[in-house]
Amino acid sequence: MNKLISISIGVPAHNEERTLPRLLDSILNQRTKSAMIREIIICCDWCTDDTSAVVKKYQRKYPLIKLIDDGKKLGQAKRLEQMYKLAKSEIFMTFDADTKLGSSDVVENMAKPFADSSIGLVGGTDLPFPSEKFFEKVAAKAVEIWQSVRVQYRNGKNVHNHHGCASAIRTSCAKKITYPKNPIGNDEYLYFAVKKMGLDFEYVKNAPVLYRLPINVSDYIKQNTRFLNTHEVMESIFGKNIYDKETVPNSIKNSEMLRHIFKSPALTFLAICLQFLIRLIYFVNHNKITKQTGWLPVASTKN
Fold first, then answer.
1. What is the pLDDT at residue 295?
2. pLDDT tens per residue across span 104-116
3. Which end of the chain has fewer beta carbons closer than 10 Å to its terminal beta carbon, N or C?
4. For residue 166, how many other CB atoms are within 10 A of its CB?
5. What is the pLDDT of residue 228?
6. What is the mean pLDDT of the chain?
7. Lowest mean per-residue pLDDT among 66-75, 193-202, 213-222, 263-272
């Protein structure tokens, strides 16, 4: 018999009492053939709600669930490092507490690429929940356009397809990771750190993980201006040429943009305008944004 690959799942959480049950249920309902979920570690970072109580309720039925709740505010990066050190499995998977696994074989499909010893990091497919409000629909169109672009470049094997809400790393690699003191873009940092170790990244299209988009302009701006700043931070750490091989050709961008314009012209136009607005705000508030520290939760995604 082939040996089952062991999986540790880590979930960093900050006030997730409403969203965490949805994620835990979707993890516990996973079907695995070549993999085995050995433990699920929930790490509370300064939770002031009933997140801890929710976890303890699950623990009574599922002993594989472990809780870290020390009452401290350390930030997401340090919580990830904490879970890396505790992990006892071959592979460490991370899912955001306010997400939901979109099928019953997400864990299985994200584990499979590690059969290749050259693979050190795997990214699943992050997809927004179905949109309800009009602004959410516009934001979802922007996501749809960008996703249709990034998955075509190098069959998705690029930094743009690694997101922390659906990530898996060899635990041996994870234990070597030390995030910068003031990290922005943990997912991109992990991508470049693993590449620097001489290992490759694999994108898994059939591992959907659903997340909630911000439903108002304020939260959307907070989230996306933070994402834009990641580029500068990564270049300061890994060197100015690190994005040379990660830049999606304009031919792919232009082709997909035209396809979406013909498909849904109004939403595509508004989505493009929204992205211009984000970049303008980032340019105007650049100095303020680059000084941001700590965990910046987006409240409207917690509903």
1. 46
2. 999 999 999 999 9
3. N
4. 29
5. 74
6. 92
7. 213-222
- Give the number of other Cβ atoms within 10 Å of residue 258's Cβ: 11
Q: Tell whether the model's pLDDT for residue 263 goes beyond 90.
A: yes
Burial 58-91 (b: 16+ CB within 10 A, else e): beeeeeebbbbbeeeebbbbbbbbbbbeebebbb
For residue 92, what are the contacts with CB-CB under 8 A and spacing of at least 6? 7, 8, 9, 10, 83, 84, 168, 169, 170, 171, 174
- Tell how strand 99-101 and strand 200-211 pair up: antiparallel
Can you list the positions of beta strands (E) in the chain? 5-13, 35-44, 65-68, 91-95, 99-101, 119-128, 166-170, 200-211
C-alpha distances in Å from residue 184, one per residue of 10, 54, 108, 164: 19, 29, 29, 12
- Answer for the pair 31, 108: CB distance below 8 angstroms, yes or no: yes
- Residue 248: name the closest of 162, 156, 163 by CA: 156
Which pLDDT score, from 0 to 100, does residue 302 have? 64
Enter the pTM of the model.
0.94
Is there a contact between 185 and 259 (Cβ–Cβ < 8 Å)? Answer: no
Check pLDDT > 80 for residue 287: no
Contacts of 279 (CB under 8 A, 6+ apart): 228
| Domains of the chain from N-terminus onward | 5-292 (3.90.550.10)
pLDDT at 220: 85
Q: Evaluate whether 101 touches 30 at the Cβ level (below 8 Å).
A: yes
| 103-107 long-range contacts, CB within 8 A, separation 24+ | 103/206, 103/207, 103/208, 104/29, 104/30, 104/31, 105/30, 105/31, 105/32, 105/206, 105/207, 106/30, 106/166, 106/207, 106/208, 106/209, 107/7, 107/9, 107/27, 107/30, 107/32, 107/35, 107/37
**Both structure tokens of 225:** 């201006």
pLDDT at 205 over 60: yes
d(CA 91, CA 22): 23
